[in-house]
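[Q] Does anyone have a clean structure-token version of this?
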Amino acid sequence: MKINSINFPTSLLQVKNIKDDNIDIFVELDDGFTYTLVVCTPKNLETLMKRENIEYLPAMPPMIIVKEITEENIRKALETYLDNNAYWLKLYFLAGEFDMEILENTLSRVKSEIEEIL
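[A] Here you go.
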């Protein structure tokens, strides 16, 4: 898979601190589908914990993490998500969208497979 385009609903010029922020992105791949994802920085994760006065990251959909929010860094990071027919990009996009019954059935199947091996 290849990236056709990366679009930013909020201009990168509006990012106040490229080392401490997050931004939504739209990634169109050559399959014609546009994936919506969030890119953030490690510092922004710290800021989130500090703002919420917590010592951990709460459960949330996965984000693509870059050291600084620049178009070049975002593109480089996204390229690593394209292997195996963009498996990781698709998984990140779908996180939080799976029906709980599907998840439970999949876990039950995996558990059975592991038990058969053991």
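[Q] Thanks! Anything notable?
[A] The mean pLDDT is 95.
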